[in-house]
Amino acid sequence: MTDLSDLIHTIEYPYTRSTGPYLGPFLTGLRDGKLLANTVGGRTYCPPIEYNPESGEDAPATFTEVGPGAMVLGCTWVTDPSSKHPFSHPFAFAMLLADGADVPFVHAVDAGSPDAISAGTRVVAQYRDDRRGAITDVYFVPEAAAVDQSIEPGDEPVLITEHLISLVVREPLFPHRRRYAEGLLSGRLLGQRSPVSGKVVVPGRGYDNLNRVPLTEADELFVSDRGTVSSYTVLTPVQYYGQKETEPYIRCSILLDGTDSPIIGVDVRDIALESFRVGMRLQAVWRAPAERKVDGLDNRFGGSWEDVIERWEPTGEADIDPDSLKDYTW
Q1: Which part of the chain is the ChsH2 C-terminal OB-fold domain (predicted)?
Q2: Rounded distance, CA 42 to CA 247, Å?
Q3: Could you tell me which residues are beta bridge partners of residue 149?
Q4: 293 and 308 in contact (C-beta within 8 Å)?
């Protein structure tokens, strides 16, 4: 049986850019175990900035080393780090004023516990063994936990930086979608009947979009897994390297008995193309309970019918008049 846990959507792509005359030296410094800053308008900034925030003029591209010590001005504790955080264990993000700088910046402090860090705590920069010219090359620890590090500088400046940009969205299934999924896993189709129009749709949307009324669990009902083909098309797979589909097959819509809107995207592979037709009566043959899954189902899409239904078979009943199905073409 499929675990109906929260849905996880990940949007991810690599991002590569040139570092430029300000960020490049700063990242090169991190790779080489140094915190670099520049002085603009009489104030020293770490990391360096590219323009004077008061006048908008270009900042000087001349750099001095600050730190490695810093003062915590404020902090917040991260109890449950994500995969994008710099540590897999709890840590702090802190506003840090590096020694020799006038403007603070935010960075990670591996403090060990929330009791070990607060405003006024002294911290020291530490550098990872594997440094790539990225902001994650450096982190901070409380002064008492700092160790001396011997870091060999690299041969070339850091001119290109690459980051994996990602956004992870956690989405719980809506209650009506969860009940619909549970119905599929038990071999039943759950629909919803509008209390205004009386029309039944599968799967339910949680609302009647025509009459603008919400639908609740009280409006749900199980419907037949037998119905009538209301429209179809024959798909001929385009052949390319890795294509698993080799033979033409049918994708159709089926108006289930007792419903007012067809289910769509139903793939049929076990009925000859030349005998398939609008008006044909079909019956679902469900997969064994242990083989059913709803991994592709979310709050917007219904997943694949083939994940729960093995095939559709002709019932042997007489066809329904195709003219009566014109309003159910999809």
Answers
A1: 223-287
A2: 73
A3: none
A4: yes
Burial code of 214-240, b = ≥16 C-beta within 10 A, e = fewer? ebeeebbeebebbbbbbbbeeeeeeee
How far apart are alpha carbons 137 and 122 in whole angstroms? 20
Pairwise CA distance, residues 227 & 73, whole Å = 68
Torsion of CA 221, 222, 227, 230, to 10 degrees: 40
- Give me 49's structure tokens: 């900035």
Please, what is the average pLDDT of the chain?
92
At 80-108, the pLDDT tens digits run: 998 889 999 999 999 999 999 999 999 99
- Order of strands, sheet of 263-268, starting from the edge strand that comes earlier in the sequence: 263-268, 249-256, 226-235, 281-286, 309-314
What is the number of other CB atoms lying within 10 angstroms of the CB of residue 204?
24
- Token reading at 303: 């997943």
Tokens of 217: 């669990």
